[in-house]
């Protein structure tokens, strides 16, 4: 770690604290050369491997943008979406993997989105899981009803 004031190549840690979200560590440092103090934030990197094989850093903003399309016209706020993205990131980080497939992110989005808004969940799932017919929608709706303990509106064939 280089000192931002004198560019000395060493510094010593004076204090370390976990950030509010618990996903990073804030360290207070001091340069032994010039005595300047500065802070650093350390986070574990999380990479996403896309279907094309390209790897890029995980982005909560991308999660929000992807889900926002499914939530158009629904009573879902930006803070709801930010919380959903945080939940998805925490779920992914809890696996302990530093690299994750894009498909796994979509799977991690589905449960919290289902809890947030069932219509948005169906929209997202229909694209993400490539629904091809009304039967796919009916199956997903029946699964939602089963999860919430509701009886089917009509007999399942």
TrEMBL record:
<dbReference type="InterPro" id="IPR003796">
    <property type="entry name" value="RNR_NrdR-like"/>
</dbReference>
<keyword id="KW-0805">Transcription regulation</keyword>
<protein>
    <recommendedName>
        <fullName>Transcriptional repressor NrdR</fullName>
    </recommendedName>
</protein>
<keyword id="KW-0678">Repressor</keyword>
<feature type="zinc finger region">
    <location>
        <begin position="3"/>
        <end position="34"/>
    </location>
</feature>
<dbReference type="InterPro" id="IPR005144">
    <property type="entry name" value="ATP-cone_dom"/>
</dbReference>
<keyword id="KW-0804">Transcription</keyword>
<feature type="domain" description="ATP-cone">
    <location>
        <begin position="46"/>
        <end position="136"/>
    </location>
</feature>
<dbReference type="Pfam" id="PF22811">
    <property type="entry name" value="Zn_ribbon_NrdR"/>
</dbReference>
<keyword id="KW-0547">Nucleotide-binding</keyword>
<dbReference type="GO" id="GO:0005524">
    <property type="term" value="F:ATP binding"/>
</dbReference>
<keyword id="KW-0067">ATP-binding</keyword>
<dbReference type="Pfam" id="PF03477">
    <property type="entry name" value="ATP-cone"/>
</dbReference>
<keyword id="KW-0238">DNA-binding</keyword>
<comment type="similarity">
    <text>Belongs to the NrdR family.</text>
</comment>
<dbReference type="InterPro" id="IPR055173">
    <property type="entry name" value="NrdR-like_N"/>
</dbReference>
<dbReference type="GO" id="GO:0045892">
    <property type="term" value="P:negative regulation of DNA-templated transcription"/>
</dbReference>
<keyword id="KW-0479">Metal-binding</keyword>
<dbReference type="GO" id="GO:0008270">
    <property type="term" value="F:zinc ion binding"/>
</dbReference>
<keyword id="KW-0863">Zinc-finger</keyword>
<comment type="function">
    <text>Negatively regulates transcription of bacterial ribonucleotide reductase nrd genes and operons by binding to NrdR-boxes.</text>
</comment>
<dbReference type="GO" id="GO:0003677">
    <property type="term" value="F:DNA binding"/>
</dbReference>
<keyword id="KW-0862">Zinc</keyword>
């Amino acid at each position: 770690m280089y000192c931002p004031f004198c560019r000395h190549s060493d510094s010593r840690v004076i204090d370390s604290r976990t950030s509010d979200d618990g996903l990073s560590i804030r360290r207070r440092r001091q340069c032994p050369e010039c005595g300047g103090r500065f802070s650093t934030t350390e986070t574990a990197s999380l990479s996403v491997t896309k279907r094309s094989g390209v790897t890029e850093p995980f982005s909560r903003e991308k999660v929000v943008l992807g889900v926002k399309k499914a939530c158009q016209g629904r009573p879902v706020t930006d803070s709801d979406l930010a919380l959903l993205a945080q939940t998805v990131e925490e779920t992914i980080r809890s696996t302990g993997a530093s690299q994750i497939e894009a498909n796994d992110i979509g799977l991690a989005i589905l449960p919290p989105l289902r809890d947030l808004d069932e219509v948005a969940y169906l929209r997202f799932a229909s694209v993400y899981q490539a629904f091809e017919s009304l039967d796919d929608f009916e199956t997903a709706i029946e699964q939602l009803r089963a999860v919430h303990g509701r009886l089917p509106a009509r007999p399942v064939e």
